[in-house]
Amino acid sequence: MQRACAAALLHHGRTILHNPGSSDDDKAALGIIHQLGALSHKEGEDLVITSKGVKPIGNALHCGESGLSIRMFTPLAALSDHETNITGSGSLLTRPMDFFNDILPQIGVDVKSNNGHIPLLIQGPLKPATITVDGSLSSQYLTGLLLAYSSLGAKDVTIHVTDLKSRPYIDLTLDVMQKFGMKMPENHDHQSFVFDGKDAPDNSADIEYTVEGDWSGGAFLLVAGAIAGPVTVRGLDLNSTQADKAIIDVLISCNAAFAVEAKGIIIHPGEMRAFNFDATDCPDLFPPLVALAAYCKGTSTITGVSRLTTKESNRALTLQQEFGKMGLNIQLEADKMIIESTGSLKGAQVHSRHDHRIAMATAVAALRAEGPTEIGEAEAVGKSYPAFFRDIVSLQAKVSGLPHYKLPE
Q: Catalytic site residues?
C-alpha cells in the first residue's frame, strides 16, 4: 500500500487503488503524498489518487512511526527544490538515518540531520548520478532511490549495491514500478541497477492497481491456525513477491497441517516439529516464527538476528524477554536465535513495547497457553493491522480490554 501511494504520487494522472490499506503506516503514507501535492478521495471501496508529480504544498513531512515511509519518501521529497523538514514520532526518533547524510549530497541534495537522526532538513532538486549504496542497512533506502531515479527518467547512471538484505522487498518495489508503467532499470542480480539512455514511457493514462493481501499480517493468522485452528485465510497471493510469503516454507518445514485450496489456505493444529530457518531476507517473520516455535517441541533456530536491532523495539531482546515470561527459553548467539520448546506455554503479563508485531505474536501464542495472557499496549497493532483483534475474536478467541476496537459480540 505504501509503495502504491509513492508510485501514485509520481504518476501524472489518476490512480485507482483497489483493496487500499488503512493501517497507521498506510495513513502516514497518504498524509505524506498529500503534503507533496497529491489529492485523494474514496469511491466506494476504492481510493482514487490524483497527482501531477511532486509539488509540495508546505515545507514539512510527518512520517508517523513508519520506517518505510521516511526512507522511501525522503528521496521523493528531494525531487523538489523546496526546503523540507522531515519528522516522525515514537520509535522513529531513535532509528539511525546516517544513510541520507552520506548519499543525498552525492546526488545534489543538501541535508542536515540531528546527529544522524530525525528531524531531517533537505533541499533538492535531486540529480541522478552513479552511486554506491550499502544494502545491509535497509532495502527501503534503495526503494526510495529507485523510485526517484525512475521518475526523473534517469539516463546513463547506475546504482551499485553492496551486501543487499531483504531482496524480496526490492522485487516488490520493482513489481509496483512495472505495474505503474515507470521507467525500469536493468537489474544485474541486485548488485547494480542501470538506468539506460532510453526515454521513460508515457504514463499519463489512468492506472488501476490492486493492493495485495499482506503476508506479514497473514503470517500471524496462519500461525494461529497451526497452533489453535482450524483457520481459513483468504486473500494471500501465492505468486506474490512479498518476502513474508516464506512463512509457507516454515509451515512445511515444521510439518504443520495445511492445504492450499481455491477458497484459501486452510490450516489445522497438529503435532509440529522444530525447524531451522534463515529470516535474514524476511526479518518481520521473527515474531510469528517465535510464536510458532513455542509449540514445536524441541530446538528451533532462526538466523538473521542482526536485522532486528532497529525495528520498533530491539525485537531480539524483546522476544526473548516477553516470551520468557510465558515460559519459553530463547537464547541469542551471534546472528542466531535458538528456541528451546517443551511444546507448551503459560499465560502471563507481557508488554508489546509499543511494537505491533510483538503484540500480535504474544496474542497468537496466548491462544493455546495455559491461563489468560494480558498484553500491555496491545493497541500497537494499529500500526500495520488495525483489525487484528477483531479477526482474532472472529476465530472464537476471548478478548477484552480494547473497547475502541468495537469488538464483535
A: 284
- Find the angle CA(224)-CA(297)-CA(339) to the nearest 5 degrees: 85
3-state secondary structure of 268: strand
Co-location of 187 and 319 in the same domain? no
409 pLDDT above the threshold of 50: no
The pLDDT tens digits of the residues spanning 114-126 come to: 999 999 999 999 9
CA dihedral (53, 58, 64, 67) positive or negative? positive
Domain final residue pick, 183, 210, 237: 210
Whether 339 and 268 have beta carbons less than 8 Å apart is answered as no
Are 373 and 284 contained in the same domain?
Answer: yes
DSSP states of 35-74 = HTT-EEEEETTEEEEEEES---SSSEEE-TT-HHHHHHHH
Q: What is the pTM of this model?
A: 0.91
| Each residue's pLDDT tens digit, 219-258 | 999 999 999 989 999 999 999 999 999 999 999 999 999 9
> Domain range spanning residue 137?
2-210
